[in-house]
Write a structure and sequence with these properties.
- It comes from Azotobacter vinelandii (strain DJ / ATCC BAA-1303).
- Keywords: Signal.
- It holds the Pfam family DUF2066.
- This is DUF2066 domain-containing protein.
- InterPro entries: DUF2066.
- The protein is α+β, with helices and mostly antiparallel strands.
- The chain has three domains: 28-105, no CATH class; 116-244, 2-Layer Sandwich (Double Stranded RNA Binding Domain); 247-333, 2-Layer Sandwich (Alpha-Beta Plaits), CATH 3.30.70.
- It is built from ten helices and 17 strands.
- The protein has helices at residues 39-58, 70-74, 96-105, 141-150, 161-166, 169-174, 179-182, 224-244, 262-272, 295-304, and strands spanning 22-23, 29-33, 80-86, 89-94, 114-115, 118-126, 129-132, 154-155, 189-198, 201-210, 213-221, 251-258, 278-283, 286-293, 308-309, 314-316, 327-333.
- The strands form four sheets. Strands 6, 7, 8, 9, 10 and 11 form a six-stranded mixed beta sheet that branches.
- Helix 4 packs across helix 8.
- The radius of gyration is 22 Å and the shape is globular.
């Protein structure tokens, strides 16, 4: 984003409200396991890391098959800032600007670092017993690793006695009975998972509630870590679809946001980063941007940071002597 009137924002107050979305750290860093440090193994890991990042940024596994990204996938180092080894893990840091540019050229949507938080109720079942995975338990580490790998801001329950009493297999299967204890975590979405080991493999049934919609599915994997990754990948795709909207043609939009201050301005710039927004002017406490996106996506992102829409979207067409493309104006305020 290229701010052109930032100095004018110094007159804004410093009072700010807490954000509803959560800023995901390490969005452009991928940690990829490697069998060795030989060049061939390294090159394969770099390509896998780029594929993971592409899915993480778009929410679409099919993004890696986009022909416009073939050259980048063939030579991922053109998008890499640095990489190094930590034991048997290759840690790759990608260049955000170059990567975003590649995705825009390919016509793919971009999911920024400000994302809805996900509360996960994960129940490991074994015979007639069930163990709720809680924050701080050793069994939580595979979930944290998988969530970071797939770009999800994860929240786990404390798994205290009250939560263990309500997190039963029946409640997780039906998606009911957890609303009361879930409220304390203030998450934007909730994922319930029942996992078990059977016949030498791991099975999971999951249910996701996000942005007023619900989806469910099942998956299997050879081990617990792979199962956690498969579930988080499925959840990431559903959440991207719910909060980003289905891919459709973009249009030129004018975005007006009232009630801004310095802290809110910084937060808004982060949220608008995927849209390549341009700040056009400041009018008192109102910021006016121009961007290319869809109305659905912008509304979803504004809701994540607690903005309220002020009036219905309106359209305006430029007049002679210069005929301008029709623009839709969206107005929000804190």
């Amino acid at each position: 984003m290229r701010p052109i009137v930032r100095p004018l924002l110094l007159c804004l107050s410093l009072f700010s409200l807490p954000a509803l979305a959560e800023q995901l750290s390490g969005l452009y860093q991928v940690r990829e396991p490697v069998a060795s440090r030989q060049p061939a193994a390294r090159d394969q890991a770099l390509q896998r890391a780029l594929d993971v990042l592409l899915v993480r940024l778009t929410g679409k596994p099919e993004a890696v098959q986009n022909p416009a990204l073939a050259a980048a996938r063939q030579d991922p180092q053109q998008l890499i800032l640095k990489y190094g080894y930590e034991g048997q893990t290759l840690v790759v840091d990608f260049d955000p600007a170059s990567t975003r540019g590649q995705l825009r050229q390919a016509g793919l949507p971009l999911w920024g670092a400000d994302r809805p938080s996900l509360l996960v109720w994960w129940l490991n079942e074994d015979g007639g017993t069930a163990q709720l995975v809680g924050d701080g338990q050793d069994s939580a580490q595979p979930l944290r690793t998988a969530a970071q790998y797939r770009g999800l801001p994860l929240r786990l329950p404390m798994a205290d006695l009250d939560e263990q009493l309500v997190a039963t297999p029946e409640n997780l299967a039906s998606g009911t009975g957890l609303q009361g204890v879930s409220g304390r975590y203030g998450a934007n979405a909730m994922l319930t998972v029942r996992a078990r080991q059977e016949g030498g493999k791991w099975l999971a049934q999951w249910r996701l509630a996000a942005d007023g919609g619900q989806s469910e599915g099942s998956t299997e994997a050879p081990d617990a870590a792979t199962l956690a990754d498969a579930v988080m990948l499925a959840a990431s795709g559903r959440m991207a679809e719910r909060f980003m909207g289905r891919q459709e043609a973009t249009e030129r939009l004018v975005l007006q946001v009232a009630g801004a201050d310095l802290a809110r301005f910084a937060e808004l710039e982060r949220v608008l980063e995927p849209f390549d927004a341009r700040l056009r002017r400041v009018e008192g406490d109102q910021l006016v941007y121009q961007l290319e996106s869809t109305v659905v996506r912008v509304r979803s992102q504004m809701a994540l940071i607690g903005l309220r829409e002020a009036g219905a979207a309106s359209q305006a067409t430029g007049q002679a002597p210069m005929v301008r493309a029709r623009e839709t104006t969206l107005s929000f305020r804190w």
